[in-house]
Amino acid sequence: MAEDMLRADPRLRVQTVIALVAATIVALIALFGFQSWLENIGQLPGNDLLILKLRRMIGAAMTGSAICLAMLAWYATHKAAGIHAHEQWPLPGTRVLRDTRILRGEAALRVARWLRIASLVLMLLVIGIGITSWRMMSD
């Protein structure tokens, strides 16, 4: 059974924590910057300009979200193809955050099927978000 376990990579854990801390700091800076901008523009006379700018910003943020979801869908499809080729999950050469049991054969192919389903759902979300974003930015 010890051979069927993929051991955790301590360096990957440290890199993950660093990336999450950096992303949190960037998100907080963006949040405070947006809040400051919103307070400044909110004091301008008339709400039409504020509403128009907010709709465009929300549309742009939705477009960015759709792009991220599309990349995630591609990644899931790519991993599913790798699982199908190797009939193993996690794929050979993968680093993991915690000790993970290696699945082979039908169990690995089940993971590939779920990844393909997840990819399809993500692409449907991308289409829906893209349409909504386009409508918000075109008004």
Overall radius of gyration: 21 Å
Number of strands: 4
Overall 3D form: elongated
Q: In whole angstroms, how far apart are the ends? A: 60 Å
Strand content: 5-15%
Can you walk me through this structure?
The longest helix has 39 residues, at 48-86. The chain has a two-stranded antiparallel ribbon. It has a two-stranded antiparallel sheet with strand order 2-4. The chain has helices at residues 10-42, 48-86, 106-138, and strands spanning 5-6, 88-89, 100-101, 103-104. It is mostly helical and 139 residues long. It is elongated, with a radius of gyration of 21 Å. It starts with a strand and ends with a helix.
Features:
single chain; 139 residues; mainly alpha; two-stranded antiparallel ribbon; two-stranded antiparallel sheet; 4 strands; 76% helix
Short description:
With 139 residues, the protein is mainly α.
Lay out the secondary structure.
Elements: E1 5-6, H1 10-42, H2 48-86, E2 88-89, E3 100-101, E4 103-104, H3 106-138
Antiparallel strand pairs: 1-3, 2-4
Helix pairs in contact: 2-3
